[in-house]
User: Which sequence fits this backbone?
């Protein structure tokens, strides 16, 4: 496989140097999150003179921060559940019943992969429906923006579920709802893992949607809490970095534990079915 | 079969997904087209149709023209750099280099960090006096290059571009790696038997065979980067002056000024830009569908 003339040791050194370019900034957050405000403003890579664990306690003592985490989890769980089930149902028809209607619906969904959200009209619509500033509103928003990719993913995967499964189930006199939920859905478990990862990360990271659609700070997701926290405490980088660590660390821990699933999940659709 | 189909694959299964998508995405897009032709603002009691007025005003606004060109420069620069680097990293890891699995994990890692966090992280790294970047430049004797990266209008846009390249190069890498690993080993073996050198093998075997990865990478990257928002907001807030203004920050300003019609029109320009440049994606996805 290898055809390069460079000895492996040189390649290894290059890779290690490039890794430093990635890891140094991350390490900078970590060490400075434990420094006092004066020392953290120097952004040095040295270990703190005194470990200021208080920074973390300070961030977590803010009720808004804890609420932000809980809001994000609530919104992500709801969005993931509805997106997964409704996308699987739609993809099932799109893949199993080809025809004009299915095709038109599918391409309409795919438009959502390309076109950006018209955010100001979305606010107006939400206000008219009394959904602005509500959990339901932001959850519906996240479902809508994540459905196109999820349906694309499910439709691709669905073709690998043999149609004979459906027919056998029908012979048994299985109702179509029961057939779908008891026989088809369990076969899609790998793609559920993928889409759950993708949708959860999208909700966790997205700024634009919550920024425009939730003005009530009690319903903010964690990224909005970061945004407002930094504008309030920008003179104390120690606590800012502690907050960034609190949001980043769980995701990175998850990433190291499940990196194979996560990488193939996040790049799914662009790599293979 | 048709009868069986109708019974076991009912169209109403499409409904839950389609209803939410239509209500929350298609309706605002559609009404957005209309609002972009109106004088809708924070003071209007009644929204009036004003034809192309918003668009005419936008194109005479220097700030919007700058935002448009910055969005394009940003999108094309990030796309070019992240693909060049991503492909380089993929080629590097597609060798027998030791710990390549670990390196793959590390190179992809920035993509897992929220863009807002990366924005604040690089605000610190670019700090003119204490930031790591200028510290490193001074250390290696390049003191003259230690500029104020985010507050000097000459470098600000470039600085934001580098941040996004840092964040997403690993993503492109993974897609290229998958493409590279699908190339049959025998091709390289017979090429080397024929005396082909690395540049030739790359030019005539590797590159043509990873063309699908290239297309998907380029289009995904162009579409994604044109929608840039939070990173610019956090790093420069469009400044200094409007040196890093992009369409999404412009929309935000219009919105906060209560100029809803104008903001919607600017948003519509972004849609137009993305459709014109990103339409190949749909064609591409259609092709993929055949392969699935």
Assistant:
């Amino acid at each position: 496989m290898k055809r390069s003339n460079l000895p492996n040791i040189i390649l290894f050194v290059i890779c290690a140097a490039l890794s430093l370019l990635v890891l140094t900034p991350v390490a900078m957050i970590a060490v400075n999150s434990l420094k006092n405000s004066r020392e953290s403003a120097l952004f040095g890579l040295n270990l703190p003179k005194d470990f200021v664990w208080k920074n973390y306690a300070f961030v977590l003592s803010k009720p808004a921060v804890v609420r932000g985490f809980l809001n994000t989890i609530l919104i992500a769980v709801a969005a993931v559940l509805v997106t997964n089930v409704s996308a699987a149902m739609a993809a099932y028809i799109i893949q199993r019943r080809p025809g004009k209607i299915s095709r038109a619906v599918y391409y309409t969904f795919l438009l959502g992969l390309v076109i950006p959200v018209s955010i100001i009209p979305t606010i107006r619509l939400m206000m008219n429906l009394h959904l602005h500033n509500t959990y339901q509103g932001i959850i519906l928003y996240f479902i809508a923006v994540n459905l196109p990719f999820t349906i694309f993913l499910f439709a691709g995967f669905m073709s690998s579920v043999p149609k004979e499964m459906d027919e056998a189930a029908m012979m048994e006199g299985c109702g179509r709802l029961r057939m779908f939920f008891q026989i088809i859905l369990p076969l899609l478990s790998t793609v559920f893992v993928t889409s759950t990862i993708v949708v959860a990360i999208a909700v966790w990271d997205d700024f634009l949607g919550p920024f425009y659609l939730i003005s009530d700070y009690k319903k903010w997701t964690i990224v909005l809490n970061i945004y407002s926290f930094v504008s309030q405490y920008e003179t104390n980088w120690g606590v800012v970095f502690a907050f960034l660590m609190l949001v980043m660390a769980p995701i990175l821990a998850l990433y190291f534990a499940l990196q194979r699933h996560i990488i193939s999940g996040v790049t799914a659709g662009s790599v293979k079915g | 079969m048709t009868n069986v189909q109708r019974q076991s694959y009912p169209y109403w299964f499409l409904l839950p997904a389609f209803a939410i998508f239509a209500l929350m995405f298609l309706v605002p897009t559609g009404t957005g087209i209309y609002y972009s032709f109106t004088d809708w603002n924070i003071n209007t009691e009644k929204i009036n149709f004003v034809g192309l007025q918003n668009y005419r005003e936008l194109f005479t606004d220097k700030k919007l023209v700058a935002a448009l060109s910055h969005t394009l420069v940003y999108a094309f620069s990030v796309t070019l750099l992240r693909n060049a680097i991503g492909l380089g990293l993929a080629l590097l890891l597609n060798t027998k280099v030791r710990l390549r699995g670990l390196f793959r994990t590390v190179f992809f890692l920035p993509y897992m960090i929220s863009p807002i966090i990366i924005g604040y992280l690089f605000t610190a790294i670019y700090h003119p006096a204490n930031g790591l970047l200028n510290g490193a430049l001074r250390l290696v004797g390049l003191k003259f290059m230690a500029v104020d990266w985010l507050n000097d209008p000459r470098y600000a846009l470039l600085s934001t571009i580098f941040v996004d390249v840092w964040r997403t190069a690993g993503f492109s890498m993974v897609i290229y790696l998958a493409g590279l690993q699908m190339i049959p080993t025998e091709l390289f073996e017979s090429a080397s038997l024929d005396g082909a050198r690395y540049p030739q093998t790359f030019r005539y075997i590797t590159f043509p065979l990873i063309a699908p990865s290239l297309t998907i990478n380029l289009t995904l990257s162009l579409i994604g980067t044109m929608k840039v928002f939070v990173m610019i907001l956090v790093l420069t807030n469009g400044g200094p002056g409007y040196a890093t203004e992009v369409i999404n920050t412009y929309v935000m300003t219009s919105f906060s000024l209560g100029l809803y019609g104008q903001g919607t029109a600017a948003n519509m320009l972004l849609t137009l830009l993305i459709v014109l440049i990103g339409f190949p994606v749909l064609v591409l996805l259609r092709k993929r569908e055949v392969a699935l």
Residues 63-96 of chain A form the longest helix (34 residues). Residues 8-54 of chain A form one domain. The two ends of chain A are 25 Å apart (CA to CA). The mean pLDDT of chain A is 88.
